[in-house]
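Q: Focus on the chain.
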Amino acid sequence: MGPIDLIFHLFNFVAPALVVALLVGLCARFVMPNRGLAPVSIARIAINFIACLAVLLLGLWFFGRDGKMATYAVMVLVSATCQWVMGRGWRA
């Protein structure tokens, strides 16, 4: 495998996490109020991306291969949970 193939494989592994993070982060601007722990959309997208990437890596470790639907389902749940926690904000 050459370096170009390695780059394509890594991008294809990371692409689902990036797409889910972008969609959830951008749609949250319209659904949730703009108060909370991470009010800026870029920060929300970055946090969702890191969480989704961690789930993909755990799915690769647990199942021994990537692309399992169970991993994608958990990735969506983790991203939604992160978005919910960031949108809650501080309530004294």
About this structure: The two ends are 55 Å apart (CA to CA). The first helix runs from residue 3 to 31.
